[in-house]
């Protein structure tokens, strides 16, 4: 598949303050595609070649490189007074907030017990084993379950005749889950990435397969990896949330590791994938707005990588290969939405790119999968999901509208590009996943009845359009119980994100279904800054347009109340990570619209964070928020909406925040300062006023000692 595109969009969350558990084409964020004790066997991405002079990312000549495991040396810093004072303040604030939570949390014990029992009941009832992702290579089938990797013959896979190739517990990785699996072409080696919930970095374990599989190599701090040949593995190293180096390791009788590529520009993140036909291994270097791809010919893996097209500001592109032609998914040309183009491998520069298919205006390209004679595009338009099948043989395009209830999809692994069927799953916040298949031979869509999923008949889905301050129509998806009477009296939970071109997470969650059954209304506001209506929708809500997302959110909530969906005193707002910017801003500008706010690892101190270039993500974040250090106008603009900067004595809604003590993406200090300032403002306002019925909001912070940024596993969701 064109996983470069999928993972580029995923990486927007991985490399920034936005971490949502999204659908397949949404960025290179490993955690967004991982569920506890379940691996997603990811597919490969493609590229092209032509040797040109290297820009910021450069190809290094072959040279020896010793890849040794060792302890990380902490960076030295001066122990000046300001640092000591800051650390002491941080420690005191943390102790104070933790003590406050310990004092308050027992109040909720009876409610916690009831909710936990209900969620576990729903989890058992609606969560089905649709079959672990399976990877078929020839007559062998590989799959993962409960931390073990199994091998079976294709004819025996349903009979239970399997061999265990790997076990996390047996090899001392009991606290880790399997993130990615790659099998060498001759199936003699298997590379696995393992990741713990408390670390951003993964470990790659290389197994030599056979009658008795053995560990051949353990490589720390690895992000992506692919087999170029039977015994040559390429991988990227990760440090401080950045991937900028590509290495090659050979597993012949003379094992050695060499540095192949390095990226010099801090805004760019490097990963590697194979084209579906395994002709090329691609080195993909992406910022949030610009791409560059280099090709390694898998037939000649020791030759220097060749450049497809030098990076051009504002042009994103990802490539696949078929019949000596490169198929390029790119934003090049007008309009600046995704287009499928092609070019000869021998002359791959953009001057030779020819149009194959263009995505329609206000349509989101959700995912893209390449096959031998066809490709499939998953699209979203006006809240509905579509499947477009492009035939390279008949040069035709068939469009299939997917079920109206579907809001999310997950593409399954298809390592063999010659397969005749494409498998995927559809879901919504209140509909458990259902498995579907598209048959290229039959030219139709088939619903897979692996196990009957109970139909939720009492939930109604409504799609609305709210008119924002500048007359732009903003989509809203609403779920509510059709048996609900007097909707204006029911509690409403509003969801918002609005950053990095990423859609709101609308996959199935037991807690969402529980709320529906208890009479709640769920609303998802697809504001600008997100990606629901394509690349333009994101551009219209980032940098100097960030306030448009805030205006959109206000318009959405106002319309919901106007149409009788609840009222302000029964309305709550939920957001995570970068969604905390808009949620926190609304609390400052229009606190009367909501009664409560729930924030998970929120980004609430935009200005101070973007002023600190020593933080690992600040430089690459400038393409989303701007550069306040060099642009005074930008600094004033960020200050105008930054949640922390605009706190003032007024009547705030109650706020519950979950933060992570070791979160590398959202500095805990910023959240501690935000909570302290917000609590003081609320108390100052309460002490000055004595209105009848006036209440002091609860400002609660729960700091988790363990867990990663916006962890989305079932266990964590249950705890949250």
From TrEMBL:
Q: Which Gene3D superfamilies match?
A: alpha/beta hydrolase (3.40.50.1820), Prolyl oligopeptidase, N-terminal domain (2.130.10.120)
Tell me the ranges covered by the Peptidase S9 prolyl oligopeptidase catalytic domain, including all copies.
507-689
Compartments, as annotated in UniProt: Cytoplasm, Cytosol
Question: Which GO biological process annotations does it have?
Answer: proteolysis
Q: Which residues form the Peptidase S9A N-terminal domain?
A: 178-444
Entry superkingdom: Eukaryota
A Pfam family hit:
Peptidase_S9_N
Q: Which UniProt keywords apply?
A: Cytoplasm, Hydrolase, Protease, Serine protease
Q: Which GO terms describe its cellular component?
A: cytoskeleton; cytosol; Golgi apparatus
Q: Which SUPFAM superfamilies has this protein been placed in?
A: alpha/beta-Hydrolases (SSF53474), Peptidase/esterase 'gauge' domain (SSF50993)
The enzyme's E.C. designation: 3.4.21.-
Citing just one GO molecular function, the answer is: serine-type endopeptidase activity
Family the UniProt entry places it in: Belongs to the peptidase S9A family.
Tell me the function of this protein. Answer: Serine peptidase whose precise substrate specificity remains unclear. Does not cleave peptides after a arginine or lysine residue. Regulates trans-Golgi network morphology and sorting by regulating the membrane binding of the AP-1 complex. May play a role in the regulation of synaptic vesicle exocytosis.
Question: What name does UniProt use for this protein?
Answer: Prolyl endopeptidase
- The organism is Smithornis capensis
Upper taxonomic lineage: Eukaryota, Metazoa, Chordata, Craniata, Vertebrata
């Amino acid at each position: 598949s064109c996983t470069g595109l999928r993972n580029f969009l995923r990486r927007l969350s991985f490399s920034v303050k936005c971490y949502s558990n999204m659908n397949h084409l949404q960025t290179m964020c490993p955690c967004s595609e991982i569920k506890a004790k379940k691996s997603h066997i990811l597919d490969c991405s493609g590229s092209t070649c032509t040797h040109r002079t290297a820009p910021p990312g450069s190809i290094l000549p072959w040279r020896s490189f010793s890849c040794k495991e060792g302890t990380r040396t902490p960076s030295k810093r001066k122990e000046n007074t300001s640092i000591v004072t800051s650390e002491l303040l941080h420690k005191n604030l943390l102790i104070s907030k933790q003590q406050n939570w310990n004092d308050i949390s027992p109040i909720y014990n009876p409610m916690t017990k009831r909710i936990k029992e209900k969620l576990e009941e729903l989890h058992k009832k609606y969560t089905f084993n649709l079959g672990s992702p399976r990877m078929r290579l020839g007559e062998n089938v590989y799959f993962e379950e409960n931390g073990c990797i199994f091998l079976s013959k294709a004819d025996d896979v349903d009979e239970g005749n399997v061999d265990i190739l790997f076990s996390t517990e047996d090899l001392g990785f009991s606290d880790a889950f399997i993130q990615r699996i790659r099998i060498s072409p001759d199936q003699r080696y298997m590379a696995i990435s393992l990741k713990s919930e408390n670390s951003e970095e993964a470990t790659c374990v290389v197994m030599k397969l056979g009658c008795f599989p053995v560990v051949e190599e353990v490589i720390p701090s690895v992000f992506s990896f692919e087999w170029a040949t039977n015994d040559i593995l390429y991988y990227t190293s990760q440090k401080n949330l950045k991937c900028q180096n590509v290495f090659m390791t050979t597993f012949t009788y003379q094992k050695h590791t060499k540095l192949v590529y390095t990226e010099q520009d801090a805004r760019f993140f490097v990963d590697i994938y194979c084209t579906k036909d395994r002709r090329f291994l691609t080195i993909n270097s992406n910022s949030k707005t610009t791409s560059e791809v280099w090709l390694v010919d898998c037939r000649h893996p020791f030759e220097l990588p060749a450049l497809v097209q030098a990076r051009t500001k504002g042009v994103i592109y990802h490539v696949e290969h078929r019949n000596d032609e490169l198929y390029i998914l790119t934003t090049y040309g007008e309009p600046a939405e995704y287009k499928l183009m092609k070019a000869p491998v021998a002359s791959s520069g953009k001057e030779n790119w020819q149009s194959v298919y263009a995505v329609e205006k206000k349509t989101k390209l959700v995912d893209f999968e390449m096959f031998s004679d066809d490709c499939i595009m998953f699209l979203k338009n006006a809240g509905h999901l579509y499947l477009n099948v492009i035939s390279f043989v008949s040069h035709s395009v068939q469009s299939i509208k997917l079920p109206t209830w579907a809001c999310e999809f997950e593409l399954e692994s298809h390592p063999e590009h010659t397969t005749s069927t494409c498998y995927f799953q559809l879901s919504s916040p209140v509909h458990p996943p259902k498995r579907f298949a598209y048959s290229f031979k039959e030219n139709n869509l088939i619903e897979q009845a692996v196990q009957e999923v109970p139909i939720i008949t009492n939930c109604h889905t409504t799609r609305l359009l709210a008119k924002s301050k500048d007359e732009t129509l903003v989509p809203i998806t609403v779920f509510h119980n059709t048996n609900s009477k007097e909707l204006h009296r029911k509690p409403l939970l509003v969801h918002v994100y609005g950053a990095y071109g990423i859609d709101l997470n609308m996959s199935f969650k037991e807690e969402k279904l529980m709320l529906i059954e208890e009479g709640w209304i769920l609303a998802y506001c697809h504001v600008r800054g997100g990606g629901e209506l394509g690349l333009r929708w994101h551009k219209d809500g980032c940098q100097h347009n960030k306030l448009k997302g805030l205006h959109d959110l206000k318009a959405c909530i106002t319309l919901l109340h106007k149409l009788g969906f609840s009222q302000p005193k029964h309305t709550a707002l939920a957001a995570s990570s970068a969604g905390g910017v808009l949620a926190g801003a609304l609390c400052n500008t229009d606190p009367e619209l909501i009664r409560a706010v729930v924030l998970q690892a929120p980004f609430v101190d935009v200005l101070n964070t973007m002023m600190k270039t020593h933080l690992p993500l600040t430089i690459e974040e400038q393409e989303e928020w701007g550069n306040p250090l060099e642009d005074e106008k930008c600094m004033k603009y960020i200050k105008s909406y930054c949640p922390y900067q605009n706190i003032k004595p007024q009547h705030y809604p109650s706020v519950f925040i979950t933060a992570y003590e070791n979160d590398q993406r959202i500095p805990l200090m910023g959240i501690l300062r935000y909570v302290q300032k917000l609590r003081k403002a609320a108390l100052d306002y309460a002490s000055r006023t004595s209105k009848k019925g006036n209440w002091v909001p609860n400002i609660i912070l729960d700091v988790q000692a363990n867990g990663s940024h916006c962890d989305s596993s079932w266990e964590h969701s249950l705890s949250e």
